[in-house]
Amino acid sequence: MTFLKNFNSSKHIFLYSSMMVTMVFLVTRLQYFLDYPVFVFSSDSASYCDAAFNIMNLHAPLFDIRTPAYPLFLALVWTFSKSMFTLALTQSVLTIICSLLFLFMIYRSYRSLTFLFAISLSVYISSSYYLVLEKALLTEGIFVNVLLLSAGTLIVAIKKNCLSYWILFSLLSALLVLIRPAALFLAGIFLMVAIFFFINRFGLRYYAALVIPSAVILLLLCSYNYATIRQFTITPFGEANLSGVTVLFMEESPEYTPLVNEAIRNTLDSIPGKSKSYIRNSFGISKLYHTFNDNFYRQVNLTEYLMKRDSSINFMTVRPILKEISVDAISKHPEIYMKFFASNFIFFFNNVRIVMDYYDQMLNIYKRTVFDKKYIEELESGRWRQVSSGKSDHREIIKFFEEEVNKQNGLENVIISGDSSAEFKRTFSGLMYSYYEKVYNFLFRNFLWVILYGVVMIVSAIGLLKSRFRDRDYFMIFLICSIFVIKAIFVSLVEVALVRYSYTVEFAIYFSLPFIFLILKKKKNTQPA
Predict the structure, then answer these.
(1) Quick check: 504 and 147 in contact, CB under 8 A?
(2) 89/83 Cα distance (integer angstroms)
(3) pTM of the entire structure?
């Protein structure tokens, strides 16, 4: 009894919760840094390097492909040590710092639920997807952590009604957009908060705290883009994604130039006829999703074809062409676009049950990077790989990739056979993680969590309605749950719903655990004596 009393005291709750999150963090990360430090590149990595190297070389970067926050982060890290190991370590350290800061904000707001949030947080930060992408030269390495902090500030702001936390939430939201434009889905959260302010008659200073900080930052980015690429926009790269959505049903038109029609024809000819037929005539959700997914990145071929046939064309020139093709395709075939949206929206929720074998994935990354030299060859090929419309020094990026790949050749725990095959030597920390992953996948990668999440969201919505939108606890729960739904809608409108995009908001699913206890506690307190 004494132990339970001490455990439930505010001081010990935070201490034990922090210890648990830290222990899970160490168990799941030490195996990487001690035994298998495989660097995670992707085809997107070069464009981040390009902007980062321009910053480090004191050249004004163009943000036509990427937004500035992640290149700035890379430049800062690489100023001290220009290596992938340093980047992976920094992004991992950022995870534990942001996790403990989030936990402290929960401790400030819902003290008795701190340990339950710690359990959910530990689940969230230890999935195989989180571990792989945390080490990657991709925005996910910092995006998930800033998003978690943003959710924490939102919880405190609602619970404490604290003006400074509304300002902080606004600033973090703008930072998220600067890291990854997909964070624009938070506009839905801003709208819901504004409605809550209106119903509960909040003063103008709260609206100002919510909107002005983020608006100022985003306007500064738009102004910089106008000065450098003559486009007053957060990012002009959205058209590339939209052309991926429509690549299966875009059509030639007499209104397009012969070059554009030729590029469309060339792209469509590269697509299997059965795929084009299926998306027009069938309604199987799973097959539709995989058909769209398998062909989404053919939009790169379309862009490359346009740029290859005319050396004077760069991405900024192609951008309005891609937009016109995509808008025309959607207006002519809205029913196919709705199939795209519906299948991807459903699969966004389905992703929670998809498992990944961490070591298989890391071994595939190793082979792709070291044996195939895929990302070096992409740059050497001279093909358009989303680097920049400016005069990019591909040689500097290639040299960096080559140096990092050479370091990978000497990894102690990678066994390389003469036929260019490889396997990991299993170490104690590696075996520990393998067992952890099996238990994790059984307990947490299943649809039962989506069901619990759905129940929590419905109950919180009912509670909020009954309170006439005045109960802050129900509003907080409903708002955090809405993050997953709004992100699902946003992604499904312009992207394929990959696990890479859904895992960033999976905390909303796993926070159902503390939320259900909060709801039960509220119902108990409202029962007549």
Answers:
(1) yes
(2) 10
(3) 0.93
